[in-house]
Each structure stands twice: as structure tokens, then as C-alpha cells.
Specification:
Blueprint: E1 2-11, E2 36-40, E3 49-51, E4 58-60, E5 71-80, E6 87-98, E7 111-117, E8 125-128, H1 138-141, E9 143-149, E10 157-159, E11 165-168, E12 179-188, E13 198-208, E14 216-217, E15 222-226, E16 234-237, E17 240-241, E18 251-257, E19 264-266, E20 272-275, E21 286-295, E22 302-312, E23 320-321, E24 325-331, E25 339-342, E26 345-346, E27 357-361, E28 369-371, E29 377-380, E30 391-400, E31 405-416, E32 424-425, E33 429-435, E34 443-446, E35 449-450, H2 455-458, E36 461-464, E37 472-474, E38 480-483, E39 494-502, E40 511-520, E41 528-529, E42 533-539, E43 547-550, E44 553-554, E45 564-570, E46 577-579, E47 585-588, E48 609-615, E49 622-632, E50 640-641, E51 659-662, E52 665-666, E53 678-682, E54 689-691, E55 697-700, E56 715-718
Parallel strand pairs: 1-6, 7-13, 15-22, 24-31, 33-40, 42-49
Antiparallel strand pairs: 2-5, 3-4, 5-6, 8-11, 9-12, 10-11, 12-13, 14-17, 16-20, 18-21, 19-20, 21-22, 23-26, 25-29, 27-30, 28-29, 30-31, 32-35, 34-38, 36-39, 37-38, 39-40, 41-44, 43-47, 45-48, 46-47, 48-49, 50-52, 51-55, 53-56, 54-55
Organism: Phaetusa simplex
Protein name: PCD23 protein
GO molecular function, one term: calcium ion binding
Length: 719
């Protein structure tokens, strides 16, 4: 007994009763003269196959289904009756059913609705499609997915061909695309393209709203309202749109800023803006309200708009000058038509309601001016003279009509000076006298020159144009003439010079006055002796009134201040001398004795004459000089010893040459008359002594001997 094993494949779509021609029996089993019997082992319950017992043809008895049974194992028994006993052979048949693409992919639903929020990021998983395929083999049951969109727009989704995952391919925006209808197809992957099967379903992708849009204003940001409207007047309808849906798109309105004075009220639901109080364009002509539109999303989004409300004018204001007082200056001597100033009034109304006309109201001097009624420019109507009238005070008027309203302003006009007048002194010449003892810097005269001009043009500058020898100067601003050094009449008694007054003009003539200044004498000079020390002599014994010397003293002052009187101030004891007070001659007043006053003011101070020279000024000034008067000697007096006798005691043992004594005599005469010569006229016969004739000294010439001579008597003569 032998066994064989065979393997083969049959397609799933084979029809029943069809002979499976792929089963080939070996030739040794099919000999015609052999008796064989074929059968399928009974233990196999499978009824899909039958075998012809005589021919061994295997055929299909019922339809195959790969998905139910994909493999069969048949045991075919071949009994050979040509052998005795019959011989059995067994053949095992392994039959694989080849799958045929006989099932289509299918979805459980034919239509799905999917919601996805619009703010999901790209690549977000939206949905996973799951199609089934009943085929058993891999390719016949492998599903590939694809997408088609119902319209021709850009498909914001992407499906994975293998996994069926639907993801976002682009950002979603519900406000642009609310929903997308997609056709999702599932196709198997049979090898033969013609055998491939598919199924599809419709998917509606609903884009769910997210509050991602702020309200957007569609109403105008500009509105107009008359200033005289009543409270509650509708000014503007504010409208804002929000493309979000539901609460995300519900808008309420609010005034965020600009309504601090509560002039308006805004209905938050309707957006109607009305007046809450009376308006006044002249107080506020424009309102800039920051209006906010707020949706009801979570979180809420908002938008703002600056709403400009222009308040339109009503003619309800009176014109007002910018200034109640206009002050300016205008030059004199100008031709008529000179611009003076421009007045300006404002009317808080606008447009035609604010048109004004200007005019001058009648008043003093108004005829010299004219005003442009449209521009408010004030011009001169005549040439002005500051020296005639330097200030004009006139009134300007601003007027508007329909209804008539006006206001006034004061115009204060100062005429500016032109340098058309030269300064003038009150007199053409001045003569003054000043004391010579004025201190340096003393003011002696304040000159004044008047100039009719004003300001700098009328400021007078003073100067001196002649030589004052450095004695005088003038203050250029005040005209005060002052001394610049100490005056001395004795040096210069009169000054003549010119003072000039000028202003800042370079073309107008200057004013000149002649100054004559006489210097009055002051007793400021002391009488001065020609010498401070005089020597004179006179012989004794002259008769009284003998002239000795004439002294001279000079005084540079004039008048009584310069008249000199002489006197003896001191040293004139016993009125020995007398001086002529006018001429200064000094003379004896008594008979002089040389021996009584040998020399005045040489032996004693009281014997020297001090002469005084005094002037007659008040107070009087004086000076002194010393006169030494020598009384010349006449030899009328003999010498007189200081003692009539001299008693001298000496020892006998004194040596020769010793000084013994000295005698002295005095002669009241002077000079050679008083020169004394001494001589021994007796008592020195033996020559024991020697007498110095000039000094009176006595010297021992020989040795003394007491036993020989105890006493010598010498007679000495002074001549």
C-alpha cells in the first residue's frame, strides 16, 4: 500500500459540476486494461467535491467561498482490482481556494455629519472612516480611501489613503465656509483594475463657530448735529456687524471715552445715539466719542470706532475782541496811510455767522486815523507830531448784522519820537566863581540842555571841547561839572571852556555854551620868609633905632590873605629889638653891650630872636624865621683873674717839671679883645718857676730847698 500527496489551487469562482482538469492521475493508474476504483474517504465531511469512481475525475459539487473555507484536504482512495487481493493506494489532495474579488467594500453609514471647530490647527484629526471588505485575501480586502468635494473650491481636508483618517489640510474659517460636503470613497486593491470594487458615502463637515471675529463697524465715523437741537435728538445710528454666529455674533454698544460731560446717551442694543443735554458749539464744536462694539462670546471680543460729531453753528454769539486794550506805537512824521496795528475780534459762531466789520468810534484825535472795515487794519490818515500829541486813545468797534451784535475795544497809540529836535542850553554862556579850596570831585554847576524829543532821541549827552587843564570834567549824562583835581588860584585863577550838549543824532546841530570859572582866593598860602635862618651883627654901644637887617616874607594869596605883617615872636627880652611890622626892618631899641649879651640865641635859647610873618586872612596864617644877632665887641673891658690871690703848697721833694698850679683870668670882650697872655712880673728872680703864657699853667724849673727858701711870692700879670 502506497500513499501520494498532491497540492493544487482552484479559483473560488469555479462552478459546481465542473471537472477540475488540473487533477492528473499518474499513467500507471489509468491503463485501460486495469480495473481501478476511485473514492473519497468517507471521514471527510466536506461535500464540496465529488470523484468519478471509474475515471477518477474530480469535480466541484457546490460553490466555493474563500471567506468560509479557503483550504481543503481530500483523501482519495484508489483500489486496484487487478491484484489479488486488491491493492489500495491513497492520494492526499491539498486544495487551496484562490480568493476572487467577489465582495465590495462597504461603509456602515451612507451619510455622516461631522462637526469641527474652526480654530483647530492644521493636521487636526476630524474623523476616522472605517469601510469593511468581505474578501479574504490581502489585496482584495485592502481598502484605499479618497476624497471628493461637492464644489470646485479648495478642499480644506485631507484623508489618509490607508487609515481613512480625515485631517485638516488648511486653516478653517466658518465665516468663509460654513460646511463642506465630501464624498468619501473606499476601494479595494484587486490586482486587476477591472475587478476592483468600491463604495462611497457622503460626509457633511460642519465648521463649528468659535468667537474669533471682532465686531466691525459699518456705520459712518462722522456725524453732524445742530447746536440748538433738543435733548433726546437722534444724532447717529451706530451699526457694527459680527460674522460669528449665535452669542458670538450678538453685538452691544457702549461709549468708551469722549463723553465725560455726559452730552450723549447710547442705546446699547439698538446703537441709537441721542443727545443727553443741550449742546453749545461755541463751548465744544466737536466730540470724538470712542464707541465700542462688544460681542457676547466667551471671551468677548470688541472693536472700537472714533465717532466724530461735528456740532453745526447757529448764529447766537456776540463778537469779542481778542484784547480789550490794544497798545502799540507809531512813528511821527510819516506820510498818511502808515500801518498802525490790526485789531481782531472773534465771533464764536462759524461761517457766515462770524463775518464782522470794523470801525472807529468818534473821539478825540480819531480823525487822524482810518480803519479797514474788513481786515481791522488801522492806518494813519494824517502825519503825526509827537511833540504836539504823543498819545491817542480811541475806540474800535466790531459789528455783525442779522441780528446786529457789536463790541468795542480801546486803542492806546503812542507816537514814537523821531529825532527832529536838537538839545538847547538855557543860556549861551555861564560865569561862576568857586573857591579854590573845593575838594576834588566837587560839583560846581549842573548844566541842563532840553531836548523836545523822547527816549534816546531826547537823551542829552554832555561833553567839554576845550582844554580845562585837567581841572574840570562833565558828567555825560547829568551835565554836572565837577572838579577833577585840587584848584589853586595862585597857579591859575580863571578857566574858560565850552560845554556841548548833543543827542544821538548825527545830522542835527549841537548846542554849545561858554563856561567862565573864576577861582576865588582862599587863605591857603603861608607867608614864607626868604630864609628860615638869618645872621646879623651890630656894634655894641650904637644908639637906639639903629637898623640891623631887613627880612622879607612873601604870600601868594591875594588881598588881605596876601598882606604880611612882621613881629618878634620870642627872644626879645627887655625889648632890646624892634621890627617894622610892614617893612620887616629889625632895629635896636636900646644901647647894646656886648659884654651883657654876647650872642642872642647862641648862649641861651631865650637870647635868639624868632621872627613871625603873619597874613591878614581869616584865619591868619604865619611862618617863622630865626635871626641870630651878634653884638660886635669893642675892647672896653680888662682881664680879671678868677681869684686875686692863689695860695699853693708844694713839697720840696717834687721833681723839676712838675705842674704846680694854674691861674685863670676872664675878659668880657670878645675875639682878639678877649685873648689873654699871662706873665710873671716879679718874685721869680732865681727862675724856679715857668708860666705858660697861653694857659696860665705854672711849672717847677729848679729843685726846691725848704731850708733855703720856705715861701715864694709871684706877681702874675694878665694882658
Amino acid at each position: 500500500f502506497s500513499q501520494d500527496f498532491e497540492r493544487f489551487v482552484i479559483p473560488e469562482n469555479c462552478k459546481p459540476a465542473q471537472v477540475l482538469n488540473f487533477l492528473k492521475w499518474p499513467e500507471n493508474h489509468l491503463t485501460t486494461n486495469r480495473k481501478l476504483h476511485f473514492s473519497i474517504a468517507k471521514e471527510d465531511d466536506d461535500v464540496h467535491f465529488e470523484i468519478d469512481s471509474l475515471t477518477g475525475d474530480l469535480f466541484l459539487s457546490k460553490e466555493l467561498d474563500y471567506e468560509t473555507a479557503s483550504h481543503f484536504l481530500l483523501q482519495v482512495v484508489i483500489k486496484d482490482y487487478n491484484n489479488n487481493p486488491p491493492q489500495n493506494n491513497t492520494v492526499f489532495l491539498s486544495i487551496d481556494v484562490e480568493d476572487q474579488n467577489d465582495h465590495s467594500p462597504y461603509f456602515q453609514d451612507h451619510f455622516v455629519v461631522i462637526g469641527i471647530e474652526e480654530n483647530v490647527p492644521v493636521g487636526t484629526l476630524v474623523y476616522t472612516f472605517n469601510a469593511k471588505d468581505g474578501d479574504g485575501s490581502f489585496l482584495n480586502s485592502k481598502i484605499q480611501y479618497s476624497l471628493e468635494m461637492s464644489n470646485m473650491g479648495k478642499n480644506p481636508f485631507l484623508i489618509h489613503p490607508s487609515y481613512g483618517t480625515l485631517t485638516t489640510a488648511f486653516p478653517l474659517d466658518r465665516e468663509i465656509t460654513r460646511s463642506v460636503i465630501l464624498t468619501v470613497s473606499a476601494a479595494d486593491q484587486a490586482i486587476n483594475l477591472t475587478d476592483r470594487r468600491l463604495d462611497s458615502l457622503a460626509a457633511k463637515i460642519v465648521i463649528l463657530d468659535i468667537n474669533d471675529n471682532s465686531p466691525s463697524f459699518t456705520s459712518s465715523p462722522l456725524s453732524y448735529v445742530m447746536e440748538d437741537v433738543e435733548v433726546g435728538f437722534l444724532v447717529h445710528h451706530i451699526i457694527a456687524k459680527d460674522p460669528d454666529e449665535g452669542r458670538n455674533g450678538q453685538v452691544t454698544y457702549h461709549i468708551h471715552s469722549g463723553n465725560e460731560n455726559k452730552a450723549f446717551v447710547l442705546d446699547k442694543i439698538t446703537g441709537l445715539l441721542t443727545t443727553a443735554q443741550l449742546l453749545d458749539r461755541e463751548i465744544q464744536n466737536c466730540y470724538n466719542l470712542t464707541v465700542m462694539a462688544l460681542d457676547d462670546g466667551s471671551p468677548a471680543l470688541s472693536a472700537t470706532q472714533v465717532l466724530t460729531i461735528l456740532v453745526l453753528d447757529v448764529n447766537d454769539e456776540t463778537p469779542i475782541f481778542l484784547k480789550q486794550l490794544y497798545e502799540t506805537a507809531v512813528c511821527e512824521n510819516q506820510d498818511p496811510g502808515e500801518f498802525v496795528l490790526k485789531v481782531e475780534a472773534v465771533d464764536r459762531d462759524a461761517g457766515l455767522n462770524s463775518l464782522l466789520r470794523y470801525e472807529i468810534l468818534p473821539g478825540t484825535g480819531y480823525e487822524k486815523f482810518k480803519m479797514n472795515p474788513d481786515s481791522g487794519e488801522l492806518l494813519t490818515a494824517a502825519s503825526l507830531d509827537r511833540e504836539t500829541q504823543d498819545v491817542f486813545s480811541i475806540k474800535g468797534n466790531s459789528v455783525k448784522y442779522l441780528p446786529s451784535r457789536s463790541s468795542t475795544a480801546q486803542l492806546y497809540l503812542t507816537v514814537l519820537d523821531e529825532n527832529d529836535h536838537n538839545p538847547m542850553f538855557a543860556k549861551t554862556q555861564y560865569q561862576i566863581s568857586v573857591r579854590e579850596d573845593l575838594e576834588e570831585g566837587s560839583a560846581i554847576l549842573d548844566l541842563f540842555a532840553s531836548d523836545k524829543d523822547d527816549g534816546l532821541n531826547g537823551e542829552v549827552m554832555y561833553s567839554l571841547i576845550d582844554d580845562t587843564f585837567g581841572a574840570f570834567a562833565i558828567d555825560s549824562l547829568t551835565g554836572s561839572i565837577v572838579t577833577t583835581k585840587a584848584l589853586d588860584r595862585e597857579t591859575k585863577s580863571q578857566y574858560t571852556f565850552r560845554a556841548v550838549a548833543s543827542d544821538c543824532s548825527t545830522h542835527l546841530p549841537r548846542s554849545t555854551t561858554v563856561m567862565t570859572i573864576l577861582i576865588q582866593d582862599v587863605n591857603d598860602n603861608v607867608p614864607k620868609f626868604e630864609q628860615s635862618y638869618y645872621k646879623a651883627s651890630v656894634w655894641e654901644g650904637q644908639s637906639p633905632k639903629t637898623d640891623i637887617i631887613q627880612v622879607f616874607a612873601t604870600d601868594l594869596d591875594s588881598g588881605l590873605n596876601g598882606e604880611t605883617e612882621y613881629s618878634i615872636l620870642s627872644g626879645n627880652e627887655n625889648a632890646t629889638f624892634v621890627i617894622d611890622s610892614a617893612r620887616g626892618i629889625l632895629a635896636t631899641n636900646t644901647v647894646l653891650d656886648h659884654e651883657n649879651a654876647s650872642s642872642y640865641r647862641e648862649i641861651a635859647s631865650s637870647h635868639r630872636l624868632v621872627l613871625l610873618a603873619s597874613d591878614r586872612g581869616t584865619p591868619s596864617l604865619n611862618s617863622t624865621a630865626t635871626v641870630l644877632i651878634t653884638v660886635l665887641d669893642v675892647n672896653d673891658n680888662p682881664p680879671v683873674f678868677s681869684s686875686p690871690e692863689y695860695h699853693i703848697h708844694v713839697k720840696e721833694s717834687i721833681p723839676v717839671g712838675s705842674h704846680v698850679t694854674e691861674v685863670s683870668a676872664n675878659d668880657c670882650d670878645a675875639g682878639t679883645n678877649a685873648e689873654i697872655t699871662y706873665a710873671i712880673i716879679s718874685g721869680n728872680d732865681r727862675g724856679h718857676f715857668h708860666l705858660d703864657e697861653k694857659t696860665g699853667s705854672v711849672y717847677l724849673m729848679k729843685t726846691l730847698d725848704y731850708e733855703d727858701t720856705m715861701k715864694f711870692i709871684l706877681i702874675i700879670q694878665a694882658t
